[in-house]
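Predicting holo structure, phenylalanine bound.
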Amino acid sequence: MVGLGLLPAAPAGAFNLARSEKANKKVLILGAGLAGMNTAYELGKIGYDCTILEARNRAGGRIWTVRGGTTETEIGGETQTCRFDEGLYLNAGAARIPHHHQLTIHYCRELKIPLEIFGNFNEAGFYYSDSPKGALANQRVRAREIHADMRGQLYELLVKANDQKALDLPLTAEDADKLMTWLREEGDLNPGKHYAGSERRGYAVRPAGGTQAGEIGPAHALKDIVESGLTHPAFANIGEYTYHQQPVMLQMVGGNDYLPRAFAKILGDKISYGCEVKELRKTQPGVRVVYLDKKTGQTKEVSADFCVCTLPLPILKTVESDLSGNVKRAADFVPYMETSKIGLQFKRRFWEEDDHIFGGISKTNQDITQIFYPSYGFLGQKGVLKGMYNFHDRANRMGALSLAEREKAALEQGGKIHPQYKTEFENSFSLAWQKIPYSKGGWAEYSKSARERMYPALLEPDDDIYFAGEHVSHLTAWMAGALESSRRVVEMLHKRVSAN
Ligand code: PHE
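Done. Tokens:
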């Protein structure tokens, strides 16, 4: 029928839930992040009466794009107001979208939000190892040099091992031959089966017009790469390898908050902003929620047939509730990631002009951990790059600093990679998610035992209270996790209501 044009084709990822007379239920949703808004959006389509309580004055939660005028005050911190120029932004939360995250892409399609490439992997990015020894220590080295030289020299070792019949592989002579051909190709070994550098690692003198043929630089010795610390996990090539970060990655044109803003616009006054949840009670049946309306300073109450709670666990644990012991235990003990970022505005896009870097990442074992170059606004006058994105201890150390100290540290550390920082810097905006009110962490970071012991409690409704959010998924730390979890709750709830 689709083929004959008698039925519209369902767009990939669209829900096919039938409206039901019984859907005439009140659903109270806690949190207007992606999970909460998607729940309201999808339940609303099939007839439920949804309202959302949101503590902040904006929707989106950890999908947060910082622009000129954005204000935030961290817990125990100073208030900062962003001074980026018009058109420049920092995705302070979710920044990159894997190409296989179908639901994220589905909602961008449905809500007509254009996507563009997010350069996550750039061979022109730099590696900078802060190290007491090594010929390549304390200097910037192009990623492509390390990648090409490591591959070349490791594959040469394998070829040598094979020639000495020391390769412990059950291969026929013919297959061994094929493998050796592949290794020589992949490693760019010369006819003598030796890696003697490669154009893949770039040129010391670039090829150009006329008589300038170009000169390939000498390979870095394996020993130097290792001794200088460049095989440390800080430099792992995950942008090429891991499923969630391999090319191609995407971002929303203009900032990733276009998705939450689109949901919020559709939901309109179904979202009550500035409402901080204080108590979550079971009324058997139904729920009652007590909240502080920050606009008036009044404490208010609201009741509903069902609740979908999307509060991040570090927030849920501060709410007085009738939740089951198992849910409370999960809220208390599931660890959350500490992670911090800084946006640095420069008056000149020197990374593009001087260093030929258009998007992608530089990596270092210093506390800033990485520098992300913007994948938008190429060739513009000014630019905002992400001068740090780190985790765990590094994020804690940076997060513990004052805003001015963070800026200073980011400029000092990043300045070792880009001396241009000194003359081109204009202003910054930094944040540490563990200190951001109503989030208190980047994302749920399940250990194996927390996943086994705590997670199951969040998967089932606790009487009439359901849970959604990236922490109720196996795609933690991704927008897709929030969306998948909410769709699951919508299905469960609708099935239950329809069956009654
Ligand atoms: N999704 C986040 C990011 O893109 C967090 C994350 C980092 C998730 C690394 C998985 C791996 O940075």
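The mean pLDDT is 96.
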